[in-house]
TrEMBL record:
The lineage of its organism: Bacteria, Pseudomonadati, Pseudomonadota, Gammaproteobacteria, Alteromonadales. This is Thiamine-monophosphate kinase. Pfam families: AIRS, AIRS_C. Catalyzes the ATP-dependent phosphorylation of thiamine-monophosphate (TMP) to form thiamine-pyrophosphate (TPP), the active form of vitamin B1. Coiled coil: none annotated. Mg(2+) 4 binds at residues 28, 43, 73. Belongs to the thiamine-monophosphate kinase family. Its EC number is 2.7.4.16.
Length: 324
């Protein structure tokens, strides 16, 4: 199978067709119409075999995951996902693998009403690069730079499960079969908090998605907002699988630093706190308040059982940390 045969078979004519796409796959560029009084949000992520996913990952899960992590970035900005382009580098053409991979990608694209409008295919080490686009009302995008002293810090769901799945696959942790299925699902099929991100718009003061770990990603918000934060570690939500597998101290690196959970971390003023909690619950999101913003120069103060926790692992960062 040659390049254009691959494109025609697995991408062109598959998935949804949005009315705002004037020209999709097949030309030098795609053409789309951006709604009036909206801004275009654009994000790009690259996933590399052995760095972002295991070599033996199920291809359907990989297709889902590759798109989900980009949609999570759009969610963190409060944007509505609309269009994506996909650059796929393959060592060879494996028809069965491609069928499953693209099916996983098309499934999540259709769920979030996203159209694949173009991209590129090349030969080389397995790499997936996705550029996702979304729209947000002009001036309403969520930013990392809006946190203020006194704001409350929230996360939209349990942390650490993806890290638990990774370490279980490395056989560094023993985990009960029913819990292993759960954490593997969380890692392989992350759920971008798209609806929650749009609820946060106009109510949250800042937001970010948790991809590199709670402490690291919160640190980005604090640096951009020029404030600090105090976090009560006991209030960080965890899953039944996490609590059944590890004791409190063993959980710390997973919930604080591992990342790959793709929950949203956001801040909200005291006056908007109750309203935001109520609106999120309407979408099935039981967000947890884990701390508060205070004055300072970007420090994250961690409190555990009423005492300061000395913890300096800063989370995942390329060129400094071991990959999967």
């Amino acid at each position: 199978m040659k390049e254009f045969e691959l494109i025609n078979r697995y991408f062109k004519g598959r998935g949804i067709t949005r009315r705002d796409v004037n020209l999709g796959i097949g030309d030098d560029c795609a053409l789309v119409t951006v709604p009036e009084n909206c801004q275009l949000a654009i994000t790009t992520d690259t996933l590399v075999a052995g760095v972002h996913f295991f070599d033996d990952i199920d291809p359907r899960a990989l297709g889902h995951r590759a798109l989900a992590v980009n949609l999570s970035d759009l969610a963190a900005m409060g944007a509505e996902p609309t269009w994506v382009s996909v650059a796929l580098t393959l060592p060879n053409i494996d028809v069965e693998w491609l069928e499953e991979f693209t099916e996983g990608m098309h499934e999540i694209a259709e769920y979030f009403n996203v159209q694949i409008i173009g991209g590129d295919t090349t030969q080389g080490p397995l790499t997936i690069t996705i550029c996702a686009k979304g729209t947000v009302p002009a001036g309403k995008a969520l930013r990392r730079s809006g946190a203020k002293v006194g704001d409350w810090v929230y996360v939209t769901g349990p942390l650490g499960d993806a890290g638990l799945a990774i370490e279980a696959r490395k056989q560094d942790i023993k985990i009960a079969p029913e819990h292993l299925r759960y954490v593997n699902q969380r890692f392989d099929y992350p759920t971008p908090r798209v609806a929650a991100g749009q609820v946060l718009r106009g109510l949250a003061s800042s937001a970010i998605d948790i991809s590199d770990g709670l402490v690291a990603d919160l640190g980005h918000v604090l640096a951009m907002s020029q404030v600090s934060a105090c976090i009560d570690v006991n209030k960080i939500p965890t899953s039944d699988a996490m609590r059944a597998t590890l004791d409190k101290n063993q959980q710390l690196p997973f919930i604080l630093n591992y990342g790959d959970d793709y929950e949203l971390l956001f801040t909200v003023t005291d006056s908007n706190k109750n309203m935001l909690e109520m609106k999120l619950r309407q979408y099935g999101v039981d967000a947890a308040c884990i701390g508060q913003i205070k004055s300072g120069g970007g420090e994250v103060e961690l409190m555990l059982d009423g005492e300061k926790l000395a913890y300096d692992d800063a989370g995942f960062e390329h060129f400094t940390k071991e990959s999967v």
